[in-house]
Sequence to fold (798 residues):
Amino acid sequence: MDLKYALRSLLKNPEFTAFAVIVMALGIGANTAVFSVVNAVLLRPLAYRNPERIVTLSPLWKQSGKSGGSSSAPDFHDWHDQSTAFDAMAYYTYFNSGPMPVMAGSAAEYAEVAAVSPEFFRVFGAEPVVGRLFTPDEWKKAGAVVVSQSYWQNHFGANPNALGQAVRMMNRTFTLVGVMPPGFSFPDKTELWTVEEGENQHRSAHNYRVVGLLKPDVSITQAQAQLTSIGDRLSKQYPDSNATKNVAVTGMKDRLVRDVRTTLYLLLGAVGMVLLISCANMANLLLAKATSRTREIAIRAAVGAGRGRIVRQLITESVVLALVAGAAGLILALWGAQALVAIAPSNVPRLAEAAIIDKWVLGFTLATSLVASFLFGLAPALTASRVDLNDALKLGGARSVSGGGAGKLRSALVVAEIALSVVLLVGAGLLMKSFLALNSVTMGFRPDHLLLMETAVPSNTLESARAATQFYKGLLRDLAHTPGVTGAGGSRIPPGQVGSNGTYFIDRLPAHPAIDLDHDAVFSVVTPDAFSTIGVPLLRGRDFNDTDVYDAPFTVIINESLAKKAFPGENPLGRILYCGFDSMNPMTIVAVVGDMRQYGPATPPGPEIFMPYEQHPRASAYLNVIVRTSADPASLSELLRKKVRERSAGVPVKFTTMEASLAQNVAGPRFRTLLFAIFAGLAVCLAMAGVYGVMAYVVGQRVNEIGLRMALGASRGDVLGLVMKQGLALAGAGLVLGLAGAFAATRLLTSFLFEVKAGDPITYLGVAALLAAVAMAACYLPARRATGIDPLAALRQE
Fold:
């Protein structure tokens, strides 16, 4: 009966019902969309067998206490052989530190390829759905390849007879032996797996990521204790390479999400505030609606309905409203989750799963709807049920609900809405100011009119790698004379990114080189004219040229930061430098160039070492060709593609602009800022709708009073000021509470801010001014309506 009556009551008021559903659907939908991302990334178990037992093993640096990154092959073998806590342990590494050219047909295409050690697939409990894994002989010598199901479908038409076909990469032919199950693509989005061949045996060479499967009765704490003991032994046994490091054991899911966990929980908290504002708005709507139902409620009480029975009826209507809003919110969440996936940074793991509405997302939506129904329905129901029968049954009985406690409750709800919206606005303002500061940072070069062409020449020997450098030499010479091109160069890793780093040594090489974090530099390989093309100033010395070849004495260029750190007050030109990039050959410093922010705009420039590409051919088989253009960079992409294909069909190309590449450095801040701004904007709209609703209601209830005042001589300005004063008092109270709350809450944003403090006064003043202006606008319309009241009509009604 309660449900039937609730439905009839809501259908009789379609405007009220539609508005209420929209308000709540926005709050519930936004929360569900964000929760679907949180659920997919943080809460849902990894899609592997025994996911809770899969861990990562990485170096733990004693000086800084930080862990993560790659390990050396000798360290891995010691961990594997000396520990008893694992059912399986393996390493993996990417070829070329990213996509590489693979030919499964007539033309090469980029694909993610990982080299793995024998127990890799055992760690994840992954078995092929077609074919097999590598045989013992294939584990010893790379010659076979296993592919993902998506790669099998896209390149072999999901044909089981594809087994045994050739896949060409690294200038070698591999045999397809197996297809992994759907969804398996670890690490990251790997499409092909093969065997690591020719391990780097230097303990200081950190080239491999390590994963392990704990035994069923072993905890992470127990495994950590055992690996710490092994790490201590290695520190004593190999002091040159291991004295400064130990081992960290971390749950794989924790390791995957550590960079995004705080951001997602912060967004969930922000969108939760939007839901609270929606609930406060709904409570005000229901209080207003209860005014028109005072006589109905009084009659129910007069004929015997107890207060509990009346509350139950009103709560039932709230639940029905919330469930309808929840269903509408779920539809909005489907679209919202897709939008979040589209704008989120590419480094968020498992993000594609966020669009999947599973039982947990449905349960969250239902729970949110029910909780919301009590949040916005209980207080109005209790207030409405507290009626005075004598007053309520009179003609003017509406005041039994509208006055006293109900009026105070409505005002308190508006103050709470404004306070919550202020907190979100301040957070959004701080993030926006920080984002603008990030985008205004000078990177040390000119990113405009630069086209990046990622290329890779297949090679697996020194001779083929040297041939690859000749391919680039001819290509760059051709591009330099292409119409519309004003400069051409190449770099292994694009500016603004880091592909390799390590320890450097000045003038002499120690007998036992060891990792020294105080002498760490970024390693880059570049072609002649790369600096002039991207706009990095040559401060002293000469650029690389055609004399810097493999058979000539090795040369190197350093940046200004390294020159100041290693040679304070001295001339670095002619000095000798060593680094473990690909050899320990002595390199003569021939130039100093300006600094670039290789780690992104948020990180100050640090030491950097540039090496000529012809002297490091193995690393130079994969280059990003950088072209400065006089027109739109994208307009030259097809011409450049054609020039590459004319030289070799086995060299894939992929284009982007330098500005688009640099945009990835601020993808995380952009994501946070955009969502906070959206949530804050939505919160302000809802809060101001609450202010408008309360003031319109107040004006409606004070018609007789205002009419009497005007009859006694009050001017329109007096009436306007009276109403505006009451509305702005509510807004002022909410603003004060909100600013105080924001000052405490925004401390959570400190780690996300760049060159902006959490207590930035300009942001707080800006938010206060914005809220004041919006509140005045929300109050003005009801106040203006009050000035149009006819005193005679108001007094006649009284």
About this structure: The two ends are 38 Å apart (CA to CA).
